[in-house]
């Protein structure tokens, strides 16, 4: 029986799942923004030059850019070999998380290697930039909008 149910679900033969039935014949009210948003990176990818006057070609994924009331910026940026995010002054806390590859981050008067698994918090008043070098560097970037 479980096997048949699993096959039915996999092949779309089962009846669609429904939410809770309305109480007293009334539909439940939806308050505020949508309860969730699912975005696929293939649908939002944009080829762009390196931001902040950076070099080379990058691919930007600005997830949830059109979500009503969301103040969190959640971006993925792919820096192709030789690309960079230009050196710039930081105005708010920003987190860089390296998903894959390696590169060089310049922070104020220092430069250091970043690689997959590294997280860097840049604070207001500091300056920084990231260079991909010979590898493709994939970075998640998060900060709060003002």
From TrEMBL:
Indicate the segments forming the Cupin type-2 domain, all copies.
Answer: 79-136
SUPFAM superfamilies tied to this protein: RmlC-like cupins
InterPro entries reported in the protein's UniProt record: Cupin_2, RmlC-like_jellyroll, RmlC_Cupin_sf
Q: Which Gene3D superfamilies match?
A: Jelly Rolls
- Which superkingdom heads the taxonomic lineage of this protein's source? Bacteria
Name this protein carries in UniProt: Cupin domain
- Which species is the source of this protein? Dinghuibacter silviterrae
């Amino acid at each position: 029986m479980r096997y048949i149910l699993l096959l039915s679900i996999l092949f779309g033969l089962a009846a669609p799942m429904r939410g809770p039935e309305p109480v007293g014949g009334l539909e439940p009210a939806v308050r505020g923004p949508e309860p969730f948003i699912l975005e696929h990176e293939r649908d939002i990818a944009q080829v762009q030059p390196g931001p902040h006057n950076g070099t080379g070609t990058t691919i930007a994924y600005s997830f949830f850019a059109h979500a009503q009331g969301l103040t969190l910026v959640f971006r993925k940026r792919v820096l192709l070999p030789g690309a960079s995010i230009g050196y710039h002054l930081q105005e708010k806390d920003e987190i860089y998380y390296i998903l894959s590859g390696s590169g060089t981050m310049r922070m104020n008067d220092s430069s250091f290697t970043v690689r997959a698994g590294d997280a860097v918090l840049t604070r207001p008043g500091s300056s920084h930039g990231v260079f991909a070098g010979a590898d493709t560097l994939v970075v998640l970037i998060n900060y709060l909008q003002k």
